[in-house]
Amino acid sequence: MQMQTAVKNCFLLLALSGIMASCSKKSNGTTKKGESSVTGWKYNDKTQGNFNVPKPKDVKTAPGLVFVQGGTFMMGQTQEDVMQDWNNVPKRMTVNSFFIDRTEIANVHYREFLYWHENVFPDQPTITNPLLPDSLVWRSELSYNEPYVEYYFRHPTFNYYPVVGVNWKQAERFCEWRTDRVNELELMKTGFLDPKTQISKEMKGSGQDNFNYKSYLMGEYQAKPGPKVSGGKSPLKDAQGKPRKIVKFEDGILYGVYRLPTEAEWEYASYGFIGQNPQKKFNQKKRGEEVHANKQMYPWKNDGFDNLRYTNRGANQGAFLANFKRGTGDYMGVAGGLNDNGSYTTDVNDYAPNSFGLYNMAGNVNEWVFDVFRPIRSDIGDMAGIRGNDFKVVDMSKGQGNLRDSLGRIMMTRQSDSVLRNRRNYQHAYAVNFLDGDSLSGANYGYGITTLVSDKSRVYKGGSWNDQAYWLSPGARRFLEEDQASSTIGFRCAMDHVGAPEGTSIKNKSATGSLQQAEMIVGIDLDDNTESLVKVQVNNKFYSPIDLASFILKELKNRAEHILKTPVSKAVITVPAYFNDAQRQATRDAGKLAGLDVLRIINEPTAASLAYGIGIDSTQEKTIAVYDLGGGTFDVSILKITNGIFEVLSTNGDTYLGGDDFDKLIVDYWILQNKLDRKVIEENKTLSQTLRLKAEEAKRYLSYNENFNAVIDDIKLDITKNEFEELIEPLVVKTITCCKQAVADSNIDISEIEMVVMVGGSTRVPFVKNTVKNYFKNDINDAINPDEVVALGAAIQADILAGNNKDFLLLDITPLSLGLETMGGLMDVLIPRNSKIPNKASRQYTTQKDGQSSMRISVYQGERDLVKDNRKLAEFNLTGIPGMPAGLPKVEVSFLINADGILTVSAKELRSGVEQSVEIKPQYGISDADVEKMLLDSIENAKQDIANRALIEAQTEAEQILNVTEKFLQKNTTIISQQELLVTAQVMQALQLSLTLNDKNLIHTKIEELNEITRPFAERAMDAAVSNALSGKSIL
Fold first, then answer.
1. 659: closest CA among 679, 641, 634, 682?
2. Of 200, 274, 757, 912, which residue is most buried, by most CB within 10 angstroms?
3. Taking a C-beta distance cutoff of 8 angstroms, is the pair 774, 799 a contact?
4. In terms of domains, do 882 and 981 share one?
């Protein structure tokens, strides 16, 4: 019988489900869950009309896009340049949150666009020819550029170079096509379109009858659902409660519309101000944004200077930050010592991304934006401003069923001015040619009373490979007719974001492995199974912290490869000292999923010590304290280093105390000092944000000065160094209390601590330094940048593992992970690969069924998630387990590897003392080539392995909940009505059915539905238990 991890008894499990449901309830216009607050009618209830109201959810991030949180900034040329036309007058502008492409659209993407049209509209050159890019833009009267004419767009070597020769109209058409293809694929994935039929029909010349996003939503496109939905298994229901086969926009399944970014969006995204200001504290739901102090000419802030090269020390020092023309006859990408291995243009992923993760927002190619070329007017809207719209509506002249044009798109027609006269928000349908500077308006912008530009003139932004540095400013703007193209102009797409401006995210560090310290920001649902990983629900998908961490690691891997110009396949990852085995294994899994071979997981205090050279010398013996005060967390660790081995004697801390709390105290001080209304401040988000940014500025300033003075909106912001230190003293004392407890837990005297290492940006505050120094009565080590010290230590550890440090003796390690089989055929790792030898690890398991008297222990070696893909080492049975209900026996399995590499596996039932063991030599019969192949397989199959594990864990969880619920119902029939039993049986049946469909997200959804149904039962059972316990007793 296979093992499973410990299962709570049925009463506790159901009670926890109820508690989680209660805690996560939000105010969303309903008096209670699923009921209208204005009519009292229930939502999603077929007995009351079945008005379907999905859970509030954030907008999904569509393929290729990056989320950009909106904000307010100074749009336009904030620094006048004599080399440029002064045509973008500065104006304060607010931009809503939106999505934008990570890179420019590349040649291969545009060829995909053409390929689809050639197959859907065969032999229709009137449709396909107008979409072709103009390759002749490369031709020059006095230069030989014919190779670019012939090869640039179609040759594979230029696949991921930005497409050029595309006019504004073609770029818009690409965005429309991309909207259709992305949503078509989503409908196929969710079963609302049959993939086989859909792809076959379209790629064989469907012509007008191709899938179109708007046509589908308006019922003009006849879709054939996939087998599951056609078979009545749709998750959507109609008014009668029957499965619905058509998706509505309200269901939240479809993505939004791709489009060109507005000029304001492009400019805001280019600057990336958010990376230069203090980040939000997670429980405040706020982010940094542009402030008046941010004045820069380029899309980067480089050590406080608007320069064109990296100034930080390191391998990239002196390298240019964009692809542009340095001077006459000196192109960045073609030849010379600064050659970037590109052509005139270069790969869309070249050069470093900005703070939003966007590449080449300056240089490489200019980019089309949505706006018509007009100067900014003083009366233009300062929220999502744009220079003129065209008011269009659906053309209904041919009646329902005939709304599509020859391309399959919904036909639109311009609304007449006479109809618009009754509107207060619109006066003229065609506002592209609004009076911005002609003789009628009388406006004068310094270069004449007319714009001298046609209504077809569209704006393009950013410098190109053929521009010199002064054109790289995001504020610079030029124009070209919408039907013309250039060898220097490409584009990227954008998409609207609606709802919470911060989007969806979660503080992930302490959530890796458990829910205990996960902090919700906005718009997400957390699902907790207490024993399993927290799951974050985004739309209809569930993500574990492993998934989320893997996205971060993958991006870091990409950035490292971009900077190093070489593949990165191995990594050393640091974690807090208090991380448990589950959290460390989760970190390893995230690395594997990101395509990394995680050589070692080391504690952050250990890494900080290595950065200071502590522990490198194997003869050195030291006892040190690592004081880590970051922006939002604090922890202290006491370490003993002997013969190069770091032993964590104790750790303590406060995961909700950091430098952000210092900022908050300063803001509170200013509010009291100026007798401001706190509620008014909190409601005024702009002022609140500005105060917080000024508070951080004051905190930093007071590290080197005695007084800080500033004025914002007539509010005097004054604070002295002494006042600041008095404010933060209670918080700093709290950290010292943690230090005292850590010293006490380590069973050593404080005098034995020889060194104190400072980690985290908040340790720069002099008062913190002095307080720590006085407590430990020892000098502190803060010579290395406290923000980088842990990363530097990890790099040193990686250098040691790579064998570059010949003075360091590497201990023997386990080449492959060792673990055993658990329920569902999963591999549960007890000793990860690269663990030092000798080593010991233990873990407790329990039985799966009532009265189970034996347990099979199967030992495996390997890196895959399923045991069938790993190497079996041994198997034995633990017999004589006393008959007890499932979940009560405690079986401790121990792995012990001695110095000779011999593995002893023992299993002991702790209640009865029954014990069994076996001795194995894991390395016997396996060659280095076999080990290398197993490692390679684990990385290549990481994504599928993680998916398989997630599915099996979901199925296991569902089976456990079904068993527990069934027992609970049998024991508590007196407190549950017949109607409730019937409804519960139906939900349990639906959960049972979901197990056969191999859909992890569907299983989790059905588990949630069962938890919601059974929540009241747990409350009643608890009330009944309390009543019985107090029956016949009096309370004094």
1. 634
2. 757
3. no
4. no
d(CA 751, CA 734) in angstroms, rounded, equals 21
On whether the CB atoms of residues 905 and 862 are closer than 8 A, the answer is no
CA distances from 778 to 453, 539, 622, 737 (A): 72, 53, 14, 17
Q: Are residues 466 and 368 in the same domain?
A: yes
Both tokens of 463, joined, read 């410098």
Host domain of residue 857:
815-926
> Which position has the higher pLDDT, 276 or 731?
731
Kindly state whether residue 85 falls inside one of the protein's structural domains. yes
Tokens read off for 990: 């639906």
Are residues 882 and 959 located together in one domain of the fold? Answer: no
| Helix locations, 517-603, DSSP H | 545-564, 581-593
Max distance between CA atoms of the chain, in angstroms, equals 105
Give yes or no for a contact between 1003 and 991, defined as CB atoms under 8 angstroms apart: yes
Q: Which amino acid is at 475?
A: G
DSSP label of 907: E
Sheet with 818-822, edge to edge strand ranges: 826-831, 818-822, 854-861, 871-879
Q: What is the pLDDT of residues 488-506, one digit of tens each?
A: 999 999 998 866 555 443 3
Same domain flag for 136 and 160: yes
- Rounded to whole angstroms, the Cα distance separating 728 from 765 reads 10
* CATH number where 988 lies: 1.20.1270.10
Alpha-carbon distance of 583 to 439, in angstroms, equals: 69
**Mean pLDDT (the chain, rounded):** 77
Q: Looking at the chain, how many residues does it have?
A: 1036
Same domain, 467 and 496: yes
pLDDT tens digits along 908-937: 888 778 888 777 765 555 555 666 677 677
Rounded to two decimals, the pTM is 0.51
Distances (CA, A) of 323 to 261, 271, 305, 467, 469: 22, 17, 19, 9, 9
Q: Which residues pair with 601 in a beta bridge?
A: 573
Domain boundary among 464, 481, 506: 506
Q: Which of 185, 767, 468, 17 is nearest to 476 (CA)?
A: 468
Domain count within the chain: 3
Q: Over the stretch 340-369, which tens digit does the pLDDT of each residue have?
A: 555 688 888 888 788 788 889 988 999 999
The C-alpha atoms of residue 518 and residue 515 are separated, in whole angstroms, by 5
Task: Give the DSSP per-residue string, 183-222.
Answer: HHHHHHHTTSS-HHHHHHHHHTT-GGGS--HHHHHTT-S-
Residue type present at position 206: S
Mean pLDDT of 586-609: 83
DSSP conformation letters of 972-1031: -GGGS-HHHHHHHHHHHHHHHHHTTTT-HHHHHHHHHHHHHHHHHHHHHHHHHHHHHHHT
Are 921 and 948 in the same domain?
Answer: no
Examine the fold and report which residue of 900, 926, 952 is the final residue of a domain before the chain moves on: 926
If asked whether residues 919 and 965 sit together in one domain, one would say: no
- Decide if 408 contacts 218 (C-beta within 8 A): no
Backbone angles phi, psi at 366, to 5 degrees: -65, 165
The reply to whether 522 falls in a domain is: no
Distance (Å, whole) CA 54 – CA 29: 13
> 613: how many CB neighbours lie within 10 A of its CB?
11
Q: How far is CA 908 from CA 519, 847, 905, 912, in A?
A: 38, 13, 10, 9
Residues 354 and 316 occupy one common structural domain = yes
Query: Residue 787: is it exposed, middle or buried by C-beta count within 10 angstroms (0-12/13-18/19+)?
Result: middle
| DSSP for 64-80, written as a single string | TEEEE--EEEEES-SS-
Q: Residue 120 and residue 691: Cα distance in Å, rounded?
A: 57
User: Within a domain: residue 785?
Assistant: no
In CATH, what number is assigned to the domain containing residue 474? 3.90.1580.10
Which token pair is 31?
């008096």
